[in-house]
Amino acid sequence: xxxxxxxxxxxxxxxxxxxxxxxxxxxxxxxxxxxxxxxxxxxxxxxxxxxxxxxxxxxxxxxxxxxxxxxxxxxxxxxxxxxxxxxxxxxxxxxxxxxxxxxxxxxxxxxxxxxxxxxxxxxxxxxxxxxxxxxxxxxxxxxxxxxxxxxxxxxxxxxxxxxxxxxxxxxxxxxxxxxxxxxxxxxxxxxxxxxxxxxxxxxxxxxxxxxxxxxxxxxxxxxxxxxxxxxxxxxxxxxxxxxxxxxxxxxxxxxxxxxxxxxxxxxxxxxxxxxxxxxxxxxxxxxxxxxxxxxxxxxxxxxxxxxxxxxxxxxxxxxxxxxxxxxxxxxxxxxxxxxxx
Length: 341
Ligand SMILES: Nc1ncnc2c1ncn2[C@@H]1O[C@H](COP(=O)(O)OP(=O)(O)OP(=O)(O)O)[C@@H](O)[C@H]1O
Fold this sequence. Notes:
This protein is an alpha/beta fold. It folds into two domains: 2-243, Rossmann fold (3-Layer(aba) Sandwich); 257-339, 2-Layer Sandwich (Alpha-Beta Plaits). The chain contains twelve helices and 14 strands. The chain has helices at residues 44-51, 74-81, 99-109, 114-127, 143-155, 173-190, 201-207, 225-230, 235-244, 250-255, 277-287, 318-330; strands spanning 2-13, 16-28, 33-37, 59-64, 67-68, 84-88, 161-165, 193-198, 210-215, 218-224, 265-272, 291-302, 305-315, 334-339. The strands form three sheets. The protein has a six-stranded mixed beta sheet with strand order 6-7-8-3-9-10, sandwiched between helices. Strands 2-1-4-5 form a four-stranded antiparallel beta sheet, covered by helices on one side. Helix 3 packs parallel to helix 5. It is elongated and about 75 Å long. Keywords: Amino-acid transport, ATP-binding, Cell membrane, Membrane, Nucleotide-binding, Translocase, Transport.
């Protein structure tokens, strides 16, 4: 649906030339939630702004639904942009307009008649969960509610694509989650393609199907979210993956337990894309003559399945322990003895 071919963006500054985006190739499929992650200055904002030509590429092509965005006339581009909604970190609402009038704004620009506009605005208010707040001004809303207005406004003209520029970065974790849930809901209900940029792996983990990692203007790694979690190739990707999986000092933080009575062997189980987490420990306790203590764990669900690690202490006869490990492996869960092997 969206194809970027050898996209490059150079900025001329007083201090010389900056390469913000460096020969990026990307394909984004219809209906998917595609995330771009990178640290500040990696080129994410510039990249996403080139999808709707808010920023013109220095070279390369952006194709959306087989349309070469760079070759459209001013009028054609205005029309094409109605098919691409966008939301922003700082919401970009009109402060002197009510919620209702903010949402109505793109409909006015598109020349939608008043009665139709009114009906559409009420539909959108309901869709984003802002019932009863239509008459409020942005200053009277919480950050999460402001972003809901931003989303409703972006969806007003029934776009096929929604671009999200750090849409949850100004929000607290709980509000972030509620906005992410809303994006998934919209993606599923409307079949909307969502492209988002973020510096938080949590956002990628929670809602994206595929991810691209950016560093110094380049896409250094991309793929299905679970595959990238499972086998991050680049150092940069490993750093991001760590944000949502194993705390860096897990092994260290468990060391004080090693050798304590009743802990026995310490195993690290790594789950990728399966949901055996639910029953594995119960099965082991029921089937084998062992005691198991859960020491620490972090299992996160992604749009493609679960991922995470669980650390357990396990005690029993040697042969029983061996059977437990064989059982775990049979369930396609990775297992490593990190103490007492
Ligand atoms: N209008 C501009 N003029 C000059 N340089 C720019 C301009 N916009 C971006 N840059 C430079 O391009 C590079 C990439 O910036 P960009 O904002 O795309 O990165 P980012 O990953 O979105 O980071 P952030 O999240 O901090 O915005 C940076 O070095 C930045 O200074």
